Predict the structure.
Amino acid sequence: MRKGQLFLVPNTLGDEDRAAQLPNVIPPFVAQTAAQLDHWIVENAKTARNFLSAVNRLTPLRVPLQEMQIQVWKGPSLGVDPRNLLLPLNQGFDVGLMSEAGLPAIADPGTEIVALAHQLGFPVRPLTGPSSLMLALMASGMNGQCFTFHGYLPIKNLERLTKLRTIESASKLNHSAQIWIETPYRNTSMLTSLTDALAPNTHLCLGIDLTLPSEQIMRHSISQWQVMLSKPSNLLTGLDKRPAVFVMQAV
């Protein structure tokens, strides 16, 4: 029997009006491939249905959305056996793996699913799409040959300040870019911690709402950020509701 393949299907980076976003960030071949799949493992079922509804407006789905098998995987801590999610592969069905935003298995719980597919001998097919991390690094002008992604930094202020100073030291030692993300409602407090913790000549780039009409990309030294933030401005309006990527490099 033919083995099913695990397709890693990119999602758009914004929550709203995915149909408008889709042609700008998802290649036609990827949309066509997604339209042929009727078995899915997703981080968020509502988000996945919204994405597939947007795909359907460009490329008709092979089966109606309500007939698709959509299973949720948020990581190993919730007691779901990932082997059960991959059972359709054993039956010869192709399966799509989808993140809530961007690329599956990058800053995403899909990593365990991909690793298990390899372990069980199923083909894994990554598809092209947007990565907020790589877009932010590209736009930052910082070292794209040596960089570290940290995921989320500590929430507690003292631990966060210590971590920021640690990665700043590593950046200076290795001439490397340091990348991380934050839950949007903590973006402003993160920015405050950065201006409190880092050296004045360290550079920070914020990539906000990447690929969306409201996209903003700003790179300044910490001393310049301090001046900007000390003055009334609408430059960062609504920052605590907008997805952002932080890229830092010490000099």
In short: The chain has ten helices and ten strands. The beta strands are 6-9, 39-42, 69-72, 95-98, 124-126, 147-152, 177-181, 203-208, 216-221, 244-249.
